Amino acid sequence: MKTRTLIALFGIGLLAQSAMALESGQKMPALKGLLPGASIPGTSGKVVLVDFWASWCGPCKQSFPALNRLNDKYAGKGLVILAISVDEKEEDYKKFASKMGAKFPLFHDGAHKAAEKFAPPSMPTSYIIDRKGVVRHVHTGFNGKKTEAEYMAEIEALL
Questions:
Q1: Is 152 a catalytic residue?
Q2: Are strands 125-129 and 135-140 parallel, antiparallel or unpaired?
């Protein structure tokens, strides 16, 4: 594991300890202002999946094809997927993003302002938010088809 990866993990761990982790039942923090310069799609009245990821995270890489399938299946029905990188270096974010072919918006949170509000305990961590903006489910890690099936059931129940 590279030194910068350890530093990033340590930094995220500190964020998680210094902030209260966002939990089910809490209101989703407004992303406007947390991701300077980002063009964030409208989420009002939509089911939203916010995914925190990093280029050094193997399970994050595995989750992107599943997120693409979810986007293909549910975007037309009201799902918005927002994927936020916590990479320290923008070049790491850009390199990973260009390889993954994401069909949903990606954002770089190099200053960790969004990560501080959500306080994801690990990478990846995903939040499924209902049409009223309330966090309904929090997923830590990604376990392939099992996690994808859980996402599908939860999203379908909210759409």
A1: no
A2: antiparallel
